[in-house]
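Student: I would love a firmer grasp of how sequence relates to backbone shape in proteins. Thank you; the sequence and its tokens follow:
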Amino acid sequence: MIIFDRTPATYQEGWAIIKQLLEKWHQATLDWNEADHRLIVADLEEKSGSPLPPSLRQWIYLNETMIKSGQWLLRDFHDIKFRSDIDAITLMIQGEEDYYWAIKHEDLNLPDPPVDGYAIDNQGRVLWDKRVSPTLTTFLITYLLDYHMMFEGTGGYNATLTDKEALIEAFTAEFPHTVIIGGYHIFESEHVLAFIQDAFSDPRKAELSVHYSGSPDHLPECIRNNFRYQGSYYGPAMKTERV
């Protein structure tokens, strides 16, 4: 199953990718009946004074389904509520409990609203930090990719490389169909999921992240040879060619 066959044009297509990511790489099939969660949605709508957009509703359904099934598949913590101090609905709180991701009240009229980040200071005040993602589905897709080390499978790694354009060219030669979502260049085959983005420290450099299933000995050269630059990896160390 190839998940990233095109860049999603609607929130429905984005959510289809999210569910497929969870199914293929977490090996978790999560389905829900919207009617089972109407009271939670109604409570949030009453407290926020606004109807909830469909993409946010899907996020609520996914959270409730993960909790009820005992399958929490995310790195950070469930925390969905309306906060009047920031006039926003929070989506999740970081595991260190010092950062929220949230949707501003003013954006609740959009079907797939943007996500903003809020830092929690030493006095417990929640302060706006930055716009994190242009849509909720983009945020969730890139979030799941960022924490690919939590996927089930043989292994993977993260590496920082100096020549972003050359790296993209090498991966495109091995994976001709490339999808770009939220600035992530995503490359996929049946047993590989890799993406390239700007390095956090220097946008001229690239962050490469790879996850794979099956034997690492049969991976494409662009994946095997870049392992030597890895800053972290999980699963067995990969045999690489000398250059």
